[in-house]
Each structure stands twice: as C-alpha cells, then as structure tokens.
Amino acid sequence: MTLEIRTGELRASSPGRLQGYVARFGSETRIGDFFERVMPGAFRASLADGRNIVALADHDRRALLGSTASGTLQLREDDHGLAFELRLPDTSVARDIAVLVESRVIQGCSFGFHVPEGGDTWLDRGDGSMLRELRNVELVEVTVTAQPAYPDTEVAKRSKPIEQGYAHFHIHRDNNFLWLELS
Predict the structure, then answer these.
(1) Which residues does UniProt assign to the signal peptide (predicted)?
(2) Nearby residues of 26 by Cβ (< 8 Å), 6 or more positions away
C-alpha cells in the first residue's frame, strides 16, 4: 500500500498542548488534475481498532511528539472532521515546536495514511476532471508542519497514489517514508 500525506490546521490551545483539525470533512481540494475530499467516517475504523497512531514533527519519525498508545495524542471524529489534541513531551523538539506554533511559523498539520481496497471512490465530475472521495483510510500518523501544501484552505491535500502515474509528481523515498511532491 502507498502511504499518502495530507495537511490540515493547527493551533496552540494552552502551554504544552496543541489542537486542531487534521482533516475537514467535505472540503474539496484540487491535486494536480483531480479533486479530492475526505468523507465523514473515513477515520472511524482506524480510531476504533486500537492501533497506535503517532504524532510527529514534519513527518520525521525521529521527531516523535506523542502517540495514542501513550495517551499523549487524542484523536476523534466529529461533525467537522478529524480533531486532535496533543500533549507535548518535555523534549527539545517539542519545545521548539511549541515556540514555532505560538509564533505562527508553524500553522499546519498533516496526516499519513494508507487506503485499503475499497477505501476510496473515483467519480467523473462531468467536466473532464475526476473526484476522489476518501471513505475509509488507515491512519498512520499526524504531524505538525510549517509548510502545508495549501495554506489558504483548512485541509490541504498534497499527494496521490503512485499507481495513478501522473508525470507532474516527483516520488521521494528514504528508509522510513515515501512521499510525492507536485512539480
């Protein structure tokens, strides 16, 4: 399965805590030559199955900020989307993140996920473009980031499955991650 990354919104709620929406339901975003939106219930199975979901700084697994297993990361679906609250640890990375969020240098968040078989639907919009609806995703991580792909929206999408093979995407890999970048 392909790991995909998306962006959302973030704010400091009190000293040592961050909260916001990782995704907003129903918000359409253009990604290259197609549109995408996260549908209500897309995270339900991931939240119910008890998997450990981690919070990271800039998708870096060495910059761990919290996890659902430790109770420092709380995730919930509500009528608006996937909400989170993160209690930051007393680490240098977390202190830096807190300062950067407070000063609005970091304003966004993102999430990494896999789409299981049948987890998305592709619809022809009738105008030559396609709409991808994410209906069920396997959530892997949430992250805080200074550069959400689309800072003018509350939920910003910035990747798509490699299998689609569009030429204007660049594939990047390291030992732990695979990500796609718009050219």
Answers:
(1) none
(2) 37, 38, 39, 40
Identify the CA nearest to 4 among candidates 27, 36, 28: 36
d(Cα 154, Cα 156) in Å, to the nearest integer? Answer: 6
Segment 88-144, tens digit of pLDDT: 999 999 999 988 888 888 888 888 889 999 999 999 999 989 999 999 999 999 988
Tell me the percentage of the chain whose pLDDT exceeds 70: 72
Measuring CA to CA, which residue among 59, 68, 80, 69 is closest to residue 148? 59
As a whole number of angstroms, the distance between CA 110 and CA 58 comes to 8
d(CA 10, CA 156): 12
Distance CA 88, CA 95 (A): 8
3-class SS at 78? coil
Lookup: tokens for 157:
């999408």
Six token digits for residue 35:
């549109």
* Alpha-carbon distance values, 108 to 27, 35, 57, 149, 171 (Å): 16, 20, 11, 9, 22
**Cα(159)–Cα(63) distance, integer angstroms:** 22
Q: Which residues pair with 157 in a beta bridge?
A: 6
